[in-house]
Design goal:
- The protein is mostly helical.
- Helix content is 77%, strand content 0%.
- It has a single domain, classed as Helix Hairpins (Orthogonal Bundle), CATH 1.10.287.
- It contains five helices and no strands.
- α2 packs across α4 and α3 packs antiparallel against α4.
- The longest helix has 23 residues.
- It starts with a helix and ends with a helix.
Amino acid sequence: MMAVKQAHNECEEKTSPLGKIQEIVDKWLKEIGGGYWPPLSMLANLVEEVGELAKVINALEGPKRNEDIKKEDVASELGDVFFSLICIANYYDINLEECIKRTIEKYNARKVGG
């Protein structure tokens, strides 16, 4: 129970730049976007957006390059992926800054220990 309470407390305040972005997305979804989708729909959307990112990167870097695809297209698709991730994090009240810090610590521990 203590771990659940600690995790909840980590998510209560989102005052970092990443936390502010989470708040902006939350406000937009509630006021303009029609609210959050069910979790599996949000996951499907994330997978769709990652597929679009893959298609753009393949067109930019792959064997059948498309001269019309630019770095800005990658940036646009990354924004869509990031938005979708933020929606899922917000739905579950997860502080993404804390998540990325823990992930970096995990990778550092693997690098040092491995």
